[in-house]
Structure formats: C-alpha cells, structure tokens
Amino acid sequence: MRNTLLVVLGLLILLITACKEVDKRTITSDEATVLVMEAATAYSIYSSTQEEGTSAGFQSEGMLKSATTTNENYPQISIEPLDLTSWPKTITVDYGPENILGLDNHERRGKLIITADNFPGVSGAEWEITFDDFYHDDYKVEGVQTIAYSGPNASEHPVYNCTVSDGVITAPNGERFYFEQQTQREWISGYDTHMVTSGETSDFCDDNFQITGTHSGTSSDGYAYTMSTTTPLLISNCCRWIKEGVLYIGLEDYDLSCEIDYRPATDTGDDCNNLVSVTVFGESVAVNLP
Fold first, then answer.
1. Are 93 and 70 in contact (CB under 8 A)?
2. Cα-Cα-Cα-Cα dihedral of 4, 7, 12, 17, to 10°?
3. For the segment 109-122, what is each residue's pLDDT rounded down to a tens digit?
C-alpha cells in the first residue's frame, strides 16, 4: 500500500513530461521529478514509522502483561522501566545492524526510540519517536515523530494525531530532503484485534484507516512544496492500493500542481482496485496501476 503513492507519482512525471503544451516556466522537468519523488518517498517512510511505532506499543503492552521481558528475533523490543505502572517509558525497537524484511515488504535496520507516557490505547497517550541510525529501504531517517491518541470519536473509532517535525531523509545517493507533517489517522475497523498480540494474520488484514491532513517539505534542489488530502484517503493493510481519496501536490510559486484521485468501488465494482485519475494542470488521464 505504501508503495502505491510512489507508483502513481512516477506515472505523474511521465504525464508532466509528455504535456508539452503546458509552460512549466521556472521549474524544469528534472527538478519536478526529483521534488515529487522525494515528497512521495518521505510520505511513505514516515507513514510506515507511525504504523511501526503503534504496533510496537501494543506489542510492548502485551509483553508487560504477560511478563515477557524480551523477544529473540529481530526486531527486538526492550522496555524501561520494565513494569506496568511507571511512566514515561523508553521503548527501543531494534531491527539489528542489517536489513530485515517486514510484513509490509519494507526493509529496515537500526533503531526506533520511543518515549511513551502511556499505552497506545489510553486516551491522551502520546508517543515520541526518534531515530538511532535508522534506515528504511536504505534511506536514512531523522527527525521527531509524535503519535497522540485523542480517544474514540463519535463513531467510537480510535483517532491518532500524527506529526513529523525536523524530518530529514538521506537517500542512498547522498541527497538530503526535508519533510513536515500534520495528519489525523482514524482507525475505522480492526481496532479491536491486533496481530502483534494474537499472532493471527487476519487481525492485521482487517485494519482500515481514513487519513486526512497536510504535509510540506523541501526537495534536495531547494524547492518548497505542500501536499494535502482534499478527500480523505481510505487505506487497508492488505490492499495493494489506496482504496479511495484525493491527494493534491502544489508548488504554487512555480506553477506546478497535480491531483491524484483514487477511484472507489462505486466507480469500479471492485473494493480493492488499481484505477486512479491523474490531473495535471487541468488535464485528466485514467491510469491503471500495476
């Protein structure tokens, strides 16, 4: 699912290049390609660490309640203080010195350091994530990420407010780019079952989220951009593609903007489909994602 945005934006670059009647003015096609791909990469990486942090929280709670003090395989989780009552706690998620492949098909190494003031299912709990020589698919990740549980909404769905501040990503080629984020993640189904405690894959696949919010950053070429959800994104853990929603990416000062509309089941008859509509400078093209 996280790779979907990268695929769509890769297709977008082809559309920008092919649209010769559009005057791109002050930003070149190469610079636009770099900006959009870096924005998509940052979005994917920090979304992933939010999910990893939340999963580690539920796993830590299960370890403490079952009096389990360690897990032998990577990622290894350690908790200090090792009790059910003392807060704050430092939770270290150690992926080891070499890449390991996760259930989401992303490779990680290094450590996530989580400072938690309560368990993730307690209203008002806040988790701060920092990174210790941490790599996601060979991209080095830095910055401060917070996950704050605001409790259930009127629909009894858990809602998490997620932020990224001072985000820095260093690509394998050494290029550095920057990212900030303010999003709300509503857990609309599957919140009452957890694979990390049950061991059942079905308890992972029944998780569905609705994501809204804004993002901003600066590309390695120095261009500042904004990205936002104009229609909430619907995401399922076990669907390859974003199910529906609209993303907008803008670089207003340089007249670069696009919209990515993920087509819902009502348009396609398929609850998990690969059809999107990509609009560049007012021109739309239907795209079937691989």
1. no
2. 170
3. 999 999 999 998 89
